[in-house]
Input
Amino acid sequence: MRFLAILLAAFSIGAGLAGSSDPQALRSADAGAPGALAEAGAVLAAMGLVALTEQGGRAFRWTAAGALCLVSAYALFWLLLAPVTPALVAAAPDPLPAGWRALRGSWQGVQGARLALQLFALAAFVFPALEERGKASARP
Output
């Protein structure tokens, strides 16, 4: 389960990175579908991983923090980015919607915050695996 959570968290980072670097890419109606699936899958895998991780230890704390970061990044999408998407998709390629520069700045800011949360989540899922591997290799 940890591998699946790591894999889906990494995929969701790719979608966030693409959106933060090129917000105009969303003007295609189906551009975000793979990223949305990866992000929803990452959140579900993170919840499953939290449920399966032994409570009380460092691994649980890292895993819970990572899951919280992914849920927060997902919430930021639905609260701040999703409401803007229909206006961008409906707009013709030229001219850009009124207030595009301000919209782009806030869009990229939210995507940057989401990216930071997703990166922390990925690291939080990887650290317990590395720590466990280190313990296993240190045993005689």
In short: Residues 2-138 form one domain. The chain has a mean pLDDT of 81. The chain is about 80% helix and 0% strand.
